Amino acid sequence: MKLSSLGRVGQKEKFEGKYNRYQRYGAEECVLQMGGVLCPTPGCGAGLLPEPGLRRILCEPGNGIGCGSVFCRECKEEFHEGECNSLLSPQGAMAQKGYVVDEHAAMQARWEEASRETIKKTTKPCPNCNIPVEKNGVSVEVPVLPLPCSELELGGDTFIVLTLQFIVADACFSQTAVILLTLLYKHFAMTESNRSSAMHFASKIHDLKKCDADSLQIGKKDGKKAIEMVMLLEWWSGTDCTLYTDPASYHKYGKENAIVILNHNFEIDFLCGWNFCERFGVLGSSKVLAKKELSYMPIIGWMWYFLEIVFCKRKWEEDRKTVVQKLLNLRDYPENFWFLIHCEGTRFTEQKHQISMQVAEAKGLPKLKYHLLPRTKGFAVTVQCLRNVVSAVYDSTLNFRNNENPTLLGVLNGKKYHADLYVRRIPLEDVPEDEQECSTWLHKLYQEKDAFQEEYYRTGTYPAVPTVPPRRPWTLLNWLFWALLLLYPLFKLLINMINSGSSLTLASFAFVIIIASVGVRWMIGVTEINKGSTYGNNDNKQKQK
Question: Transmembrane residues, as ranges (predicted)?
C-alpha cells in the first residue's frame, strides 16, 4: 500500500513563512542587539559577533554561511588603516549625489539577498512539492526526501516497516536508532521493490544525525530516553507531583514558548522538570542550558546532543558565540518549547552557598538563605535572543515534603516521593531589555524565591492553588513498546547461550551485564550532590556575573 503525502501546499507556505520570519525578525535583530554586525558583501549578509572594539572584521566561512571577506567595522568597506573616508561610506557617497539612504531598508535588503543565496546554494527543490531540502544527503547516494512527500511502499516485510515507522517517529532519542535504521536501510536496499522504502529511511538516518526539527516536524513526539526516565518517576516509583500555580495561568502551560527558571537543590530536580513538561505535552521540545561535560555522558549526553540542547563551558569568553548561535536557532523552532535554565549555575551545597554569599556581601547585594547568587549573564543573553518569540518566564520552585532527600537511585529502587512545584507565570514584557536592569530584575526574583522557600519550610505549602495535572499514558506505552522490541532478542540470545552449555559464553554474558550495571551506577553518580561539580567551590571560585 502507499501513504500519499498530504497538505503539501500548506506545508510549503508554512516553510516559506518560517524563512521570512527568520530573515526579517530573527537573526538580524538579535545579532544587532548583541552588538554584532552584518557582512556588507553583496550576496552574503552573514550575522557576525566580533569582540567589542575590534575594528577589523573577518566574515569567516562555515556551514554554508560566510564569504571570507575582511571589512572595517565602522564604514563597512574593505578593511583599511587610519580614519574612515566618509566618501567611501554609503552615507557619504549618496550625500554627494543628493540621496538619503534608509539604513534599515538597506540592511534588510542585504540580509534577504544573502538568505536567498544561502538557500540557493545549500538546498534544492523537492521534485514533488518544490519545498527546499538539503543538498547534502546521507553517506549513501540516495535522494533525501522530506517526510510529507515520500511514498512508502510496503513489501513482504510489513512488520519491519511498521516497526521502522515507529522508530522514525521516536528515534531521535534512542541510542539504538541510528544502528537500527542503518542496518534496516541495507536490508531494504537489497531489493528493487523496496527501493523507495530504503530511500525514505536513509533520509531519516541523515535527519536523525542532524535532529533538524524544521525538516522532521516531529516536535512533541520527541524524547524517548527522557520519556523512559519520566516513566520511572511516574509509574515505577509512583512519585506524586503537585503543582501550585495561578488558575488563570494553568491553561496557558504547554501552549506557548517559555523560559523556565528552576532552583537547583535536589538530585532529581531535572527529572521533576521533565515530568512537568510531560504533563503539558512539551517534553520532546524542552530545551536546557547545560554544562558541556554532560554532553560526553553515554546515552543521556548523546540524547541531549540530538535534542539540540544548548551546552556551555561556563566561561563567557568561550561561550559567547556558541551559546548565542544555539539560542538564535530556537527562534525558528516549529513547536512550542520550554527553555530551562538554572541561573545559580551549579547545584546548591553549603560550601558553595557560603562562597556565594561572600560574593553577595562584596557586591552589596542582599544575601539569600536557600539559593546561590544567580549568574545573570546567561539569563540576560537568553532573554535578548528569544524576545518576541518567548511569551513568558516561568519562575519555578521545587521542594519535597517531610524534608525528603530524593535520589535517582531511590527512584530506580521504586521509592515514592512527594514533590511540590510552585510556578509563577511572568510575561516577558515585564523583564527589562537592558542587561543591567535585567540583572537587577533577576536578583529581585531570587529574593522572592527565597521568601517562597522560607514560607514552604514554615507552612508546608505555597501561596497558590494546588492541582495535580493528569498523568498521560504515553510514557508507559512508549516504554512497553521499546522493552518488548529490544528485550526480545536479548532474551532469545540468553536462551541460546544457556542451551549451548558453554561456560565461557555464559561468563562473557554475565561480564557484559556487570559492566552495564556499573556504567548505569556511574551515570547515577553524576546526579549525586556529594559527587557533583566543584564549580563554585573555593578552588574554583570565579567572579560572579
Answer: 294-312, 479-498, 504-524
